[in-house]
Design goal:
The protein is α+β, with helices and mostly antiparallel strands. It is about 45% helix and about 10% strand. The chain has 32 helices and 15 strands. The strands form 4 sheets. Strands 6, 7, 8, 9, 11, 12, 13 and 15 form an 8-stranded mixed sheet that branches. Strands 1-2-3 form a 3-stranded antiparallel sheet. A hairpin with a 5-residue loop joins strand 2 (about 65-75) and strand 3 (about 80-85). Helix 28 packs across helix 29.
């Protein structure tokens, strides 16, 4: 295409080596690539192809630092070697071959490449430390942003209305691996400002499901309070409730709790059933038991005074390092860091930590030191606000699907994650295979010592994922760089390893009677330890669980196989339920079991669900429940209400109002709803005997 160059091409007397020198000088773009791209040099210009065909083969191209050696076998089979010294004034690329660097004079791409190389080959966790100036700047920006934009929440001493929901803020902005237009990436994000503006009640209602909204509003109506002061106790309650639970779900429970138990003394004097009834629906009931136990310890051993130091707080039941630090920092303004998943996510993106937020080395050890560098920077004041700002940022702009490029994000200029995304984009935009070559080079550069904070394959995993994502994007010159930054941000932190939930199949017996005004249900209290400890439920029996299958399958093979959940025969589940009830003995009649009453009332039997299980999912367990219901009113006309004995567990007949007082779990609520639906369905088959 170049007239001055075409004359050179047409002269067959020009040596191939001379021609290649000119070609290299005029084709700086090709020199940015590796061996594969240099081979493509012969086909890049139309005239070159003819010259290449005159030779038998190009056997080897090798670039070493600033020199390249060309080995060529001529037609007369004499081997010659020509050294090419590349002196291109307008081009010098950062080539990384055999661990050596060629300095890049192009400042922007050079900065990207330097950063990427330093991050990808680091072997010491100190690379993730904040400089003094960086920590102070981050702290300053966080405080300004938090004070102006923080959510209004009851445990922060705010009056109503509250704006706990983050719906619409952390909308997914990832560019998926499948090809997706950059324009959609940029325009598909909602304006995060709408979250921080005051929302009407209608807007709030729209961010939650109908069921969740109704239950929350009903609780709020009963929990109208004045401003709740920030105390060690109030922060303690809020932090325990917020563990693994959404902020908007906690608000009504917190208000109801603080109305009933406004002080640590009030909680210590409450009964177990009162505590459970206020906690019912929040899940993870062990938290409530430990909070209750801790309140008793504070009152009995600490004169009712919640400690202000982390060390003293750690002596209280149910308080770990995170909760102790939050109470000490937020309630008493002690200069200590607070690290949770949100904080780890922010730190990972700020400093390029290639690990997941659940990794013990991150969330339990080294992450605390990094957070402390921010919290203690400057004069170290307002530690409570700084900690809350970090957590707030991790729940909003730096949520899992945050972009890292939003202009209202206070730390947008500090994210290493976005810079890494842009640096990888510099590699792949001219060569789809550049990331593979780059990973190969950094592998040769790796030393035996490794960064303790990053997982072993974290860096390589992020590089490969980013390379694949960026190559798959339909390129839009105006938006590509922005998309690269977003993709880089989305890859930090890495995904935690997935654990399969334990599967359990339960047979459930629901007995009721209506000999009194209110319908009552036979309930049994769960053991004091384990899942849902101390909660009330229908009698049930575990018919199958995946743990037993995993134990049987454990052997020399380490490969994990998908566990097949068996299809249950409803006759088998009903028989199992009947057998379970044989262990419940009626106190008034020593020789009569609950199974006898169950069989006598067989005509009233209802299969609440046929072949489709009623599911209830916990964080680590999935229940598949098959429920049989029987109205035993006819059998109780002479006995009235009987008391049953089952192992060491308490049994009781309860109306639904009684259930509200003691608190029942969501699984019981699901079963009650299913029973009522089946009874009211008017299905002629809803009552039937079990046929063998």
């Amino acid at each position: 295409a170049n007239p001055s160059f075409s004359s050179i091409i047409h002269h067959s007397s020009i040596p191939l080596s001379t021609y290649l020198v000119h070609t290299c000088q005029l084709s700086s773009l090709m020199l940015k690539a590796s061996l594969g791209n240099l081979l493509l040099l012969a086909t890049a210009i139309n005239r070159t192809a003819a010259i290449v065909r005159n030779a038998n083969a190009f056997q080897l191209f090798a670039l070493n630092s600033r020199k390249s050696t060309l080995t060529h076998t001529s037609p007369d089979r004499t081997l010659f070697t020509t050294r090419l010294t590349l002196h291109t004034r307008n081009f010098s690329s950062k080539l990384l071959m055999n661990g050596q660097e060629v300095v890049n004079d192009e400042r922007d791409s050079g900065a990207h490449t330097n950063l990427l190389w330093e991050w990808a080959t680091h072997s010491d966790e100190k690379i993730h430390d904040f400089t003094t100036e960086e920590a102070e700047a981050i702290r300053s920006k966080l405080l300004v942003w938090y004070r102006a934009n923080r959510r209004k929440l009851p445990w922060r001493g705010d009056p109503e209305p509250y704006d706990g929901s983050t719906a619409g803020i952390a909308t997914s902005s990832k560019v998926k691996k499948k090809a997706r237009k950059d324009k959609q990436v940029a325009k598909g994000q909602k304006n995060i400002k709408s979250f921080f503006q005051s929302n009407s009640s209608e807007e709030k209602k729209g961010t939650r499901s109908e069921t969740e909204s109704t239950s929350a509003e009903s609780l709020l109506e009963k929990s109208e309070l004045d401003i709740i002061p920030i105390t060690g106790y109030s922060v303690w309650v809020s932090e325990i409730m917020l563990q693994q639970t959404r902020v908007e779900a906690v608000i009504p429970y917190y208000l109801k709790w603080m109305k009933s138990f406004p002080t640590v003394e009030a909680l210590a004097n409450a009964s177990e059933e009162e505590v459970n009834s206020h906690w019912a629906g929040l899940g993870f009931y062990r938290r409530a038991r430990l909070l209750h136990k801790g309140a008793k310890f504070v009152c009995d051993d600490l004169n009712g005074v919640v400690p202000d130091s982390v060390d003293e707080l750690l002596n209280v039941s149910g308080i770990g390092r995170y909760t102790a630090s939050a109470i000490s920092s937020i309630a008493f303004d002690k200069c200590v860091p607070v690290v949770d998943g949100n904080v780890c996510r922010v730190i990972s993106r700020l400093k390029g930590v290639a690990n997941n937020i659940k990794a013990p080395i991150f969330k339990d050890k080294l992450g605390w030191g990094l957070a402390e560098q921010i919290v203690s920077s400057g004069d170290g004041k307002y530690a409570g606000e700084v900690n809350q700002a970090l957590m707030e940022l991790g729940a909003t702009y730096c949520a899992p699907s945050g972009t890292g490029v939003d202009k209202d994000d206070p730390l947008v200029e500090f994210y290493m994650s976005t810079k890494i995304g842009e640096a990888v984009n510099e590699l792949v935009k001219h060569d789809p295979m550049a990331v593979s070559n780059f990973v190969y080079k950094i592998s040769k550069q790796m030393v035996k010592s490794k960064c303790k904070l990053c997982e072993e394959t974290g860096v390589k995993s992020i590089l490969f994922q980013l390379g694949e994502d960026l190559v798959s994007i339909e390129k839009n010159p105006e938006l590509l760089n922005n998309a690269a930054a977003i993709l880089g941000h989305s890859r930090f932190p890495t995904n935690p390893p997935k654990k399969n939930k334990r599967e359990e199949i339960l047979g459930v017996a629901a007995l009721s009677h209506n000999i009194d005004a209110d319908e009552k249900w036979f309930m049994v209290k769960r053991p004091k330890d384990g899942l849902l400890a101390g909660q009330w439920e229908f009698p049930n029996s575990c018919l199958w669980n995946s743990s037993s299958v995993e134990k049987k399958g454990s052997g020399k093979s380490k490969a994990k196989k998908a566990i097949e959940i068996p299809i249950m025969n409803r006759l088998d589940t009903s028989n199992a339920v009947s057998k379970l009830l044989s262990d419940f003995y009626i106190e008034e009649l020593n020789d009569v079991s609950l199974q006898d009453i169950w069989i006598q009332s067989e005509a009233q039997r209802i299969l609440v669900n046929d072949d489709t299980a009623i599911e209830h999912i916990f964080s680590h367990v999935r229940w598949s429940m098959f429920c049989d219901h029987t109205d035993v009113s006819s059998s109780l006309e002479t006995l009235q209400e009987f008391q049953a004995i089952y192992e060491d567990r308490e049994c009781r007949w309860m109306s639904e109002s009684d259930m509200q007082k003691v608190g029942i779990t969501s699984s019981v609520k699901k079963l009650l709803a299913a029973i009522k639906t089946r009874r009211n369905a008017g299905n002629p088959k809803k009552r039937r005997k079990i046929k063998k």
